[in-house]
From TrEMBL, chain B:
It comes from Paractinoplanes bogorensis. Residues 23-159 form the Activator of Hsp90 ATPase homologue 1/2-like C-terminal domain. It comes from the Bacteria. This is SRPBCC domain-containing protein. The lineage of its organism: Bacteria, Bacillati, Actinomycetota, Actinomycetes, Micromonosporales. Gene3D superfamilies: 3.30.530.20. Belongs to the AHA1 family.
Amino acid sequence: MFQALADATRRDILARVLHEGQSVSALARLYPMSFAAVQKHVAVLASAGLVTKERRGREQVVHGDVAALRRAGGVLTELEGLWRHRVRGIDDIIRGDSDASAGRAP
Amino acid sequence: MPVLDVHRDEEALTVALTAEFEAPPVRVWQVFADPRQLERWWGPPDWPATFDEHDFRVGGRATYYMTGPDGTRAHGWWQFTAIDEPRSLEFDDGFADQQGTPVPEPQPTHAVVTFAADGDRTRMTVRSAFTSLDALHQQARMGMEDGLRLAAGQIDAILKEQP
């Protein structure tokens, strides 16, 4: 995943195909590199699970996988969720003090 | 709800959170300073933590393990890098292998926690960030697995480009 996104051309390809599928040959016209080089970039994105390829006649059409990309962005969401859980735990402990001092059951 | 505000910075791989508790800072400080209280809230759901070392001074380490529902133990460590009782606290927070030896993956995070009095209450802020963005990018270039870290900023940018 990292390796797939570490290259500017691949990020650009991914951004284009998220909206709408594009053929490899249409993509190849956008970059100053050979068809084979673009095809290779697409293959790297595909093996990272970020795009899928679909054969349509003589063309290969590339589609972006928005869900896969969102999952990759999830690490901060996970960290946030963990800290929200911790804050609830701290709050329970603090509230337990006042319950105890007031002679009520926690 | 005690959580007042959360901010995620995808570029800096940082989560900042503000919470308020119904007790003064000297009390809230104890949930970090006292390992018996700390282990009541540190672990994720269903993974209670047990701290077997808690050397609460600058440069000191804490080591702990979390016990999963099936009895699996996951080990971790803290290293305290700043302590200003009862105002602020900073520590690195990483994972360890079954022998308790720190491992580089998953990446450690660095937490900065502040406690400010607000009447009888405490406003606590936590800023938790991945410690080495360079290391994350390095992993990216090396094509290491577990890719879920680096590209948060890039991913965000790509998603924003979507019409």
